[in-house]
Design a protein that fits this description.
heterodimer, A: 316 residues, mainly alpha, 14 helices, disordered C terminus, B: 398 residues, alpha/beta, Rossmann fold, 2 domains, 6-stranded parallel β-sheet, 3-stranded parallel β-sheet, 12 helices, 14 strands, 39% helix, 16% strand, Ribose transport system substrate-binding protein (chain B), Peripla_BP_I (chain B), signal (chain B)
Amino acid sequence: MRRALPIVVVLVVLLAAIAVVNPFFLEPAGFLGFLKRAAPLVILAAGQYFVIVSGEFDLSVGSLVTAEVVIAARLIDGDESATWPVLALLIVIGLLVGLVNGVVTTKLRVPSFIVTLGMLLVLTGAVFLWTGGAPRGALSEGFRMFGRGGLGPLPWSVLILLAMGAAAIWLTRTDFGRTLIAVGDNERAAALSGVRVDRAKIFAFMLSGLAAAVAAVLLGGFAGVSAQAGQGLEFSAITAVVLGGVALGGGRGSVPAALAGAFTLEALFTLLNLYGISGALESTVQGVIIIAAVAAGAVRLPWKFTPRRGDAHAAS
Amino acid sequence: MPRHKAAIAVLAALVVAGCTTDKPASTTPSTASATSAQGSGTGEQSKFFVQADFDAQLAMRSETPQGPSDKPWEQAIAPQMTGTATYKKDGPYHLCFSNAAVNNPWRQVGWKTMQAEVGLHKEIGKFTALDAEGKDDKQISDIAELQAKGCDALIVSPNTTATLTPAVTAACGKVPVIVFDRGVETDCPVTFIKPIGGYAFGADAAEFLVEKVPAGGKVLALRILPGVDVLETRWSAAKVVFDRSQSQVVGVEFTDGDAAKTKSIVSDYLQRYGKIDGVWMDSGATAVAAIEAFEDAGVPVPPINGEDQQDFLQKWKDAGLTAVAPTYPTYQWRTPIIAALKILKGEEVPKLWNLPQPKVTGENLSTYLKPNMPPLHYALCGCEDLPGYPETWGGKKS
């Protein structure tokens, strides 16, 4: 938790700033509303954490979210009885896309930046081709419940967020979590010490795909069918993770910090919105954060000289 | 510890972002209308606003269009006819079409409607269409390419007004040109086809709200993007109407056409003001999301406008809303084909072909609501009598 401290401070400052402008934010309903809105991004950030800490990127999650929402609407087409089979199918599709990303990255040795960028384009094009720019069908009430409804005062999306967050934190404490950091820190050293690097990375990509599927269910439920449902989410997720101090290139970072990073980004957007500044500036802020965070990670002041580590992860 | 440095840099980034965000807020109070107490809260008038066009469009709404009333795509408001005898030739004809894009549901519905219209006419021997995919440069080369294909007439739906003007001017010298939807800055096309326009759209919606929202009521205006002429006219007309009214516009927000963002913005306003008495929208795509924000907050949905998309019309009926739907009818995609054939047969056409622009109201809602059509289908497609309806438009037979 110590690792998450700086970002938690930033988050608290932002939340306080929101509360000053909008006192309703401090009431349970107002705060739960914020959590509900942040849930898809936080879940995506959790998935993205595993990929980034292993030294890779996943740029495909935004278009995967869009594809999942459009597929769900087309297959459910307002039919309640189709809700659960389609939900299961969405999870499978998410895992499958992650599997493909992971296998191509590790087995074919294509840089993940290219693989997932390609996947982004493939999914975007496929969605456009399939829908012709206008999604068809409709989501059932049962499907939309996850993004709209709640268990009493608690929105389902907040409960799902808690479950996903807990699972992600648990995963980092297992052997898999430690292995992943070792892989991201120094892939060759990890491989030489007997770690099955490829398997760990493929699993990380599948987690990211799973997170995208869950985020799609929440987003589709929250806002309904849209061919722009996941637009730009890949960059928001990466920004959130980087904001949480997870090093691009891998090997360093924690899930709680990544989750806090996602909440911080969402709080920042909310604050901008409250001040009547929205739209274009959001991307500017994200860009500044990514560059600043990576630059800060690269700067090493002379009096804290540490011998350079093997840079295997930087080359991959 | 690099981690601490990262945190410091992030803080610095936030501070920098904070500084830059202050500037627009203080120089343009229009966007931060929520906190400013000036006037009716609508901010400064758009630089795209042209008073004469505004007056002309508002006047056109009450004029009776000429032509068959059951085929509004053949009707014209106050047409000034122009002779086309010089273009007369024998068929079969080769029609060409340079399309700006098919990247949104409105253009999808329109494009299908146009193709079906082409299928109605045996005298069209060949129909060549190029899709510019929303890029000006591609459309410029598309128009040049089409001129080399021996077209008898060229239909253009320009991607942007100013940039495409030279390309259209060049084509005018070789073939009769028909422009529709967005215009160009030259009168060389034989005819320019469009519905009444954005001012009428924005005013239709705003006038409805002014009538339905109690005096002093809080109106939230939701726009897609700033700086796009066809959307600026809609808002600038609404601004004129709101400025004259008792309504208080508490916010003018940009949604990027994103449903989730729209819903969040409306929820924020509900939190901040407790009650919103009316919602004005510059397009209907996210109207349902805005309505759901009220439903999820457990408050009644106030008077709102959408557009003629099925999802909105369905919601309107199911929830018994107080609503109106001004339109930018997709049936205008039929007219260019009809115009091209008239021109090639030497018949007169209106120089400026203003199509009627009906609005969906509580009274005529049931005629436009078609539950068998997909949620993003536009009701005013004028396509019900065309072959392939409803399947071609994604609908189900029933």
